[in-house]
Design brief:
single chain, about 300 residues, Rossmann fold, GMP Synthetase, Chain A, domain 3, six-stranded mixed beta sheet, three-stranded mixed beta sheet, globular
Length: about 300
């Protein structure tokens, strides 16, 4: 009888290199929020891939970035903790990122004893000569890593990455039930979906000043009733979120409700509120309240 393999595969890298799109492609479900804006993922989001004799627990971490406020310090600590508990590390870069941008983090990756897969994403947007140069440069920086060119969006080489992950996993019984695709509760994905829509519909600093809290999640046989609050840092931001005659908020809430219905497979009744919580991103108390650990 074949051995069962299980393990934790942590995905790290710069915020805007397509990590979330990659994890969604690997898991086969839309688990992590993926938009075109940087710093989308604020928590470690776990997606679980199950096969007959394999369970892969993927963790999409917040991006590696230089923190400008306490929220970003917490996000960076999530990424660094991913180096400590991985069976396999996937380091994602892309065709435009400067390889010397995160030298300290790369140095930590170099010291790991676990297998490292370095994925160069978005290769559909470059040529063979540029790709060869990038492979050579990254090979010098991370000599122990296996370098794999991919396109998460086009799903190019994703099957090969999955095959390598399965081959490198340790023998182990599954950590989670086989029908589970994530370790996060339903409320978490409600807030992530709403925050993802805010990232798409609002410009500049607004999306990064927003936190979404689910106040009510009541599931009935044919409908889920949800109430949530969008927190912003300033009164002016509250006005922008709501928009003239409430039109901006109505539009973003409608798009969020549609995606929630696709995600949960049920009708959604959604109520939204907007409140000001001044300078929450630099408040230890509020960061704890919003679920960002301060260790």
């Amino acid at each position: 009888m074949p051995h069962h393999k299980s393990g934790f595969v942590n995905i790290v890298g710069n915020p805007n290199v397509g990590k979330s799109t990659l994890m969604n492609a690997l898991v086969g479900e839309k688990i992590s929020v993926a938009t075109f804006k940087a710093q989308t993922t604020r928590h470690r989001i776990t997606g679980i891939y199950n096969d007959d004799d394999v369970q892969v627990v993927f963790s999409d971490t917040p991006g590696v970035l230089k923190p400008n406020y306490k929220l970003q310090e917490t996000m960076l600590s999530f990424s660094e903790s991913a180096l400590e508990d991985a069976d396999i590390l996937i380091y994602v870069t892309d065709i435009v990122e400067k390889h010397d941008k995160h030298e300290e983090f790369v140095a930590k990756v170099n010291k790991l004893d676990v297998p490292v897969l370095l994925l160069i994403n978005k290769i559909d947007l470059t040529d063979a000569q540029t790709l060869d140069r990038l492979v050579e440069e990254w090979g010098k920086l991370l000599p122990k890593a296996e370098i794999i060119p991919v396109s998460a969006k086009a799903k190019f080489n994703i099957n090969y990455v999955m095959r390598r992950v399965k081959e490198l996993l340790p023998d182990s019984p599954p950590y989670f039930d086989k029908d589970q695709i994530t370790d996060k509760p339903a409320r978490f994905f409600v807030s992530e979906i709403m925050r993802g829509k805010i990232l798409l519909f609002y410009d500049k600093e607004i999306p990064y000043s927003v936190e979404v809290v689910v106040d009510e999640f009541k599931e009935e046989e044919s409908i889920i009733r949800i109430a949530l609050t969008i927190y912003v840092e300033r009164d002016s931001q509250k006005g922008i979120i709501i928009g003239h005659e409430g039109k901006a908020l109505k539009k973003v809430a409608t798009e969020a409700r549609k995606e929630m219905e696709r995600f949960f497979g049920k009708s959604i009744f959604l109520k939204t509120f907007v409140k000001v919580d001044k300078d929450w991103r630099n408040s230890d108390k509020e960061l704890r309240n919003f679920g960002y650990k301060q260790d």
